[in-house]
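Hi everyone,

Forwarding the result from last night's run.
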Amino acid sequence: MSDQLVFIALQTNEDTRAVIEAIETDNPHATVHRFPAMVKIDAPGRLEINRATIEDLIGRNWDMQELQLGLISLAGNIDETEDQLVLAWR
């Protein structure tokens, strides 16, 4: 696996607050950059977004497709299931 940076950039709003917190929880190696209207999260090699972590934070079912509502940009190859989205370079 490459240690090249992957990233995801999300709008800063109420809908993405829990997603960002979940990403921070599941990826302690990641660096979070907060801007007025955007949060960019960089990680060397791999970044995971786990549905279960988000659901624990928001207290309801959450569909991985909801991520698209606040997504600005990303870098890395995507592996996505109903439970997890992984960014990594292959």
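The longest helix spans residues 14-26.

Cheers,
N.
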